[in-house]
Design goal:
This protein has one helix and 16 strands. The protein has 192 residues and is mainly beta. The strands form four sheets. It has a five-stranded antiparallel beta sheet. The protein has a five-stranded antiparallel beta sheet with strand order 14-13-12-15-16, with no helix packed on it.
């Protein structure tokens, strides 16, 4: 199966020189002279290396033949351990294979694990995750309208910028694609 460069989007998995890559960033360029082209930043799905590659406009590129399996994150030691929700088989991935997703990965989170040629090579988190704020400076009373922000350390170790009214112990919703604070999350039943 092939895809046109006109249909490129972030996260799309394409094959370049026989190797699997994910599109990290792309830009359509139409110079004054010459043909249009697409400038891309690609991340190798196994090696985690990032390359820059330019494609002609409307060039056809093969898609990576991959499989996704829904899995649950169990725990982390020197590797990250996941369980297939259908077969209960377990797989483990290295820190490099998990990549930046580790910042927002907490036990029991359901993720998509990508397989290429029968081997797990990476994961995709849900778009939003709810995480507990472990450490942040106290907010200032009455300072909710100023729109200021402060850093907060979450239960996974990630540090995100949150509004001043967020306190330690709050549950916050974070966009895993950008690492941005979205909102205060509803507390889980039985906590608080």
């Amino acid at each position: 199966m092939q895809v046109s460069t006109n249909d490129f989007r972030k996260g799309l998995k394409i094959e370049v020189d026989g190797a699997p890559y994910a599109i990290v960033d792309f830009q359509h360029v139409k110079p004054g002279k010459g043909g249009a082209f697409v400038r891309t930043k690609l991340k190798h799905l196994r090696l985690e290396t990032v390359i820059d590659k330019t494609f002609r406009a409307e060039e056809k590129v093969p898609l990576v033949n991959f499989e996704e399996k829904r899995m649950q994150f169990l725990y982390r030691d020197d590797r990250f351990h996941f369980m297939d929700l259908e077969t209960y088989d377990q797989v483990s991935l290295s820190e490099a294979e998990v990549g930046d997703a580790r910042q927002f990965l907490k036990e029991n989170t359901e993720v998509e694990v990508f397989y290429v040629d029968g081997a797990p090579i990476g994961i995709e988190l849900p778009t939003f995750v709810d995480l507990l704020v472990l450490k942040t400076d106290p907010g200032l009373r009455g300072d909710t309208a100023s729109g200021g922000s402060k850093p907060a350390t979450l239960e996974t170790g990630a540090v995100v910028s949150v509004p001043l009214f967020i306190s330690e112990g709050d549950l916050v919703r974070v966009d895993t694609r950008t690492g941005a604070y979205i909102s205060r999350a509803a507390a889980a039943a039985g906590s608080g």
